[in-house]
Amino acid sequence: MNIILKSLLVGLMFGLCAPASAQVRIKDIVTVEGVRSNHLVGYGLVVGLNGTGDSLRNAPFTQNAIEGMLERLGIGNLSEEQMRTANTAAVMVTASLPAFARAGSTIDVVVSSLGDSSSLRGGTLIVTPLSAADGEIYAVAQGPIAVAGYAAQGLNASIVEGVPTGARIDNGAIVEREVPFAFKDMGRVLLALRNPDFVTAKRVEKAINDAIGPIATALDPRTIAIEEGGKVSLFDLMADIEPLLVEPDQVAKVVIDARSGTIVIGADVRIDRVAVSQGGLTVTVRDDFDVSQPEALSIGGTTVIVPNSTVEVEKRDAQFAVIDGSVSLQRLVDGLNAIGVGATETISILQAIKAAGALHADLEII
């Protein structure tokens, strides 16, 4: 087990000395009905590229877009040869229109190449309307784009860092149309838990009713209804409710990222009494190369390279470690450390314990 993994496990065990759950604000675990963002999308052109734009032969839609743009600007009757350009690229422009966005405010946009452009670096997005799912235009984007990646190419070599065909424009779109939503006219508000849970919903209901009055009702594991209380408006109620602290409950879960070997074990994970053994063989193959030279004054002799392979087999005796029943996360980590296993072996052990029915938690592999 390497030093980094040991350090992570030691830090994890020290962290277990703290309470299993912490109190959080209600605003951090719920969303409010109707208060959400809306996706916008548009098709546009990026100009000013240094020869890295679309090839019009492979991207005819780029040529059609250029022709339409020039016609709107009063420039037409251009032949196909006159339209040849390598400094323009067709792009898809996406954005998220936040809740309560007002006309004249700005939002960020993401620009992504649609054709065979090799890089958008140095380009400028020209006026691009952005529409929502209803077909209405809600914003207009334009401006110089910022590309995080880059690409360089020579005759026999090339290098690409990041993704030069994707970019963004900070505050690159101006909101032209507002999404109608009258929060002040609502008779009640529905709070939706990001992670549905009966216990958490009940705790949110109790925290609100204890602090403000009997205005909250848990409808299901996700939804808590807030009724308007007398002369106090819903706006004032929400301003008083959001800072309230509750302790959310969570499902016992073990999350495994098999690609990186990352293991995250929830504090409520429990394991029945089991005996775990882990062992196996380590085979090491090493190739050394010797040089064989002919003797002096020999006729027809040549120098050759002779491979010399060495195979070593190291057997590690399997060791059993008994993990007591209904153990906590710290006892589980202690038990796995006792038999000296690493991250890869731990993943296999957890899967085997789950298959044996001794792991009382959801095992999620991503």
UniProtKB/TrEMBL annotation:
<feature type="signal peptide">
    <location>
        <begin position="1"/>
        <end position="22"/>
    </location>
</feature>
<keyword id="KW-0574">Periplasm</keyword>
<keyword id="KW-0282">Flagellum</keyword>
<protein>
    <recommendedName>
        <fullName>Flagellar P-ring protein</fullName>
    </recommendedName>
</protein>
<comment type="subunit">
    <text>The basal body constitutes a major portion of the flagellar organelle and consists of four rings (L,P,S, and M) mounted on a central rod.</text>
</comment>
<dbReference type="Pfam" id="PF02119">
    <property type="entry name" value="FlgI"/>
</dbReference>
<dbReference type="InterPro" id="IPR001782">
    <property type="entry name" value="Flag_FlgI"/>
</dbReference>
<dbReference type="GO" id="GO:0071973">
    <property type="term" value="P:bacterial-type flagellum-dependent cell motility"/>
</dbReference>
<keyword id="KW-0966">Cell projection</keyword>
<dbReference type="GO" id="GO:0005198">
    <property type="term" value="F:structural molecule activity"/>
</dbReference>
<keyword id="KW-0732">Signal</keyword>
<comment type="similarity">
    <text>Belongs to the FlgI family.</text>
</comment>
<keyword id="KW-0975">Bacterial flagellum</keyword>
<comment type="function">
    <text>Assembles around the rod to form the L-ring and probably protects the motor/basal body from shearing forces during rotation.</text>
</comment>
<dbReference type="GO" id="GO:0030288">
    <property type="term" value="C:outer membrane-bounded periplasmic space"/>
</dbReference>
<dbReference type="GO" id="GO:0009428">
    <property type="term" value="C:bacterial-type flagellum basal body, distal rod, P ring"/>
</dbReference>
<keyword id="KW-0969">Cilium</keyword>
